[in-house]
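Z., the sequence and structure:
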Amino acid sequence: MCSVQRSTPPAGRYEMPRVLPARTDFAGLRGRRVLAVVDDDNLTISLAECVRRLRYGTLLSAIRRVADTVTGCVVLTCAAGDGRPRRHLEGLGWRVVAVPREVVRTHRGAEVKANADMDLCFEAARLVGEGVFDVVLVGSGDGDLCVSVARGVRRAAPWCDVVSLSVRESSSTRLFTRPDLFDRNILIGYDITR
């Protein structure tokens, strides 16, 4: 995980602060038809460890500068009835799937449930089926989620490359050790964060 250097290191251990690369290298998307599907919750948590936030407008612009065409979709969780995140992202040019957080009764009492992984998988499959893409870019470091999306893309559109977009220290090793599923990983840099 990315971390900020503490003023007082933990006893017996000193951890150097981890940093993002200066630039996000989208060169591998040059001239391609890209479907970008982003797991907002995962990237928000990963970048919070670096005290950064993803700039969605800059991300979409950066991909558009190199790609032939781009379809971008963000999947996020939000408070029920809160349309602000959706309107903001749609204003930047993204398609948005907003999954409301729910309070449910469990054997442990009331709990807030908010997991959009299956919604992201469904949306990625739906968009792959509707469009013609050369690359599916999955914005998440979640190994289980990315592997599920990549397997689905390999079945539905085997001609597509599958590329992950993630934060260096918050990425599952599965994104780097499964060349049968992932063609490459792009690390998020300072240039698309604030």
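Residues 27-192 form a domain with the Rossmann fold fold (CATH 3.40.50.1010). The helical segments are 40-48, 56-66, 84-91, 117-130, 143-156, 174-177.

Let me know what you think.
H.
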